[in-house]
Amino acid sequence: MEGNTGGVRVVSRRVIRPELPPEHETTVHLTPWDLPLLTAEYIQKGVLLPKPPTGGEHLVEHLASSFARALGRFYPFAGRLAVAEVEDGASPPSSISVFLRCNDEGAEFVHATAPDVAVADIAASLYIPRVVWSFFPLTGLLPAVAAADSLPVLAAQVTELSDGVFIAMSLNHVVGDGTNFWEFMNTWSEISRSRSKLDISPSPPPPSPSPPLVVKRWFLDTCPVPIPLPFAKLEHIIPRRDHPPPPLQECFFAFSAESIRKLKAKANGEIAGAAATISSLQALLAHVWRSVSRAHGLAPRQETAYVLVIGCRGRVSGISPGYVGNAVVPGAVRLTAGEVMERGLGWTAWQLNRFVASLDEAAMRGAIAPWPRAPEFANFAKAAGGTAVHTGSSPRFDVFGNDFGWGRPASVRSGGANKFDGKVTVYEGPGGAGSMSLEVCLAPAALGKLVADEEFMGAVTTPSINRNFGQAFYAITTNWTLNEACKDMKG
């Protein structure tokens, strides 16, 4: 027994090296899309699976072997970030560069158990129990620290529950983005399923050929390679946290395809004649923005922002579908709370639509051009102000196709990394065909108001919700007694 966190016991921990890695280059220089994330915690996502026919070491060894095979394809994830002094007379003194060394040192693989946690404790609960955060490895680790200490850039954890399995990964955000994360998970599950003696699920259709990986990063012609960072030590970029983080709570909301269609139709109906078509995702995010603004109790003249991350694949020439590395541009739509709450779903969604449309290739190139001259780094502590909503991930990522050989996932959850008041993670819905799910992280009082908001919850189709749950949850977060809250739920 290595340790016990919230009922989660770590059984073993090891480093797994890639099986059959191809011949590859050893140094990958990093871009203005990668380097700002040196101060962002690892990407943490995982899938909740039914109980396999065989557990224990047999299950773990099978998954470890499949993981090694997936690493053979995604060999950069078995490398390490490294730091070097810049030897260039044109660079400021005491400059450093950070790069990825593809040295096949391996990724971390953890086996854990949580015998007191059941699948229903997670999948059937609107509120996300904090024990979920213990299903993820490398929590709290910053890429800057991983680079300085030569720590793994990828880790996986297999946690056996009382009646299921949670398979989670943590990926250094400098090394890859959400697209790369789910491509690796899809590859791992496909290999596990194809090699599995555990297989009890119907045979899936043959996978479509994967595009070749493009490991070499893409740079503007005017960008120096490597990019010198004007610091003597990498630790100097890590933001200070003078106060402990405020309390947070999370809920998981499911939206059926029919519910999404209704939101989209409503949004487009409200802006008829605006020469724009609101997408399903834009309609859902506008619904969230309006609801979270009400939950935060923002004053009408108070500025609020919706921060989006727009993918560059398919928008910027030179970024191929198999590109490994970050290929996203963040940006914000800024309005007053009064505009968001009073001008309607359609108008709010239209503002998101206009922003996305404005990010063409020229805008994306322009957004990164100044970065090498004035580098800035992610600081999510600044985001925790309660006036903005930040959405990451994508409903296009294949989450529920990750059948490792004994059944599709029951649900998906993220870890504790990069969590703050206003963080919203979007996933495809378990029903597919246009359904979506949201993981919403807010201050407890604001989340209670959101769950009690009839307009917001009217679009939610999570099966475990009953009409009185929102009122009871709000009661708990506003200092009613637990007994009073339970009476409300029973009523």
Automatic annotation (TrEMBL):
Pfam families: Transferase. Keywords: Transferase. One of its GO terms (molecular function) is hydroxycinnamoyltransferase activity. It comes from the Eukaryota. Gene3D superfamilies: Chloramphenicol acetyltransferase-like domain. Signal peptide: none annotated. This is Acetyltransferase. InterPro entries: CAT-like_dom_sf (IPR023213), Sec_Metabolite_Acyltrans (IPR051283).
